[in-house]
Amino acid sequence: MGFVVAVDGPAGSGKGTVTKLIAERLNLVSIDTGAMYRCVALDCLNKNISSSDLDGIANILKNIKIELKKENGIQKVYLNGEDVTEEIRTAKVDNVVAVFSAIKIVRDKITPLQREMGKTENIIMEGRDIGTVVFPNADVKIFLDCSLEERAKRRYKQNIEKGIETPYEEVLKSIIERHKLETEREIAPFVQAEDAIYVDSSNLSIEEVTNKIIEIINERR
Ligand code: DC
Questions:
Q1: Which residue of 4, 26, 134, 208 pairs with 204 in a disulfide if CB–CB is 3.0 to 4.6 A?
Q2: Structure confidence by residue, pLDDT tens digits, 139-186
Q3: Where are the domains of the chain?
Q4: How close is the Cα of 219 to the center of ligand 1, in Å?
Q5: Ligand 1 geometric centre to CA of 57 (Å)
Q6: Which run of H or E residues covers position 140?
Q7: Which homologous superfamily does the CATH classification assign to the domain defined by 4-210?
């Protein structure tokens, strides 16, 4: 087993950016597990498989090939041989991924793939259930929290930058809905592991969060 850092946190907590920065500075392999669930959702969307069609989803899972690889320093995501790095971040995937990722057969397929990645390399893995389910014995566990309002503000700003005009209230509502789905689902709900270290990013910059987590990791290494 390599050295494993587990980072769990909600969308908008900055965990994706922070995890990549920490990986670079500490020479760890960073793994974005949300991207894997996004691939499952995209494959189902592309093949017109609804979230209630469990046979159809089982079929997708039987043949799915997800690759996370670094190309010229940039993290890329491949689904069945096709570069989907951008497409998995679009609204059509955002809108359905929480539902697909709550399905038992989906998690039963994806979780072992994630465990496999920690066997040989030193990793920092981010998601919702890394410290609770995927690596309950991780060397370091971080729970990176952020208030719903701050997450909505960040998403609202990102939307504006992308030229998408969605009222703040609507953005906040969709964040609250997604949060409810993720924290209240039966399998691998998004909760803090008992032994995780709590970090609140609501009032911290990316740099401050990164430094704080690096300090915690260095204490344990
Ligand atoms: O982190 P993200 O927003 O890219 O995650 C996409 C979806 O996948 C989100 O609805 C939560 C889910 N997810 C999960 O259930 N377990 C993980 N370890 C990572 C993500």
A1: 208
A2: 999 999 999 999 999 999 988 998 989 999 999 999 999 999 999 999
A3: 4-210
A4: 28
A5: 17
A6: strand 140-145
A7: P-loop containing nucleotide triphosphate hydrolases (3.40.50.300)
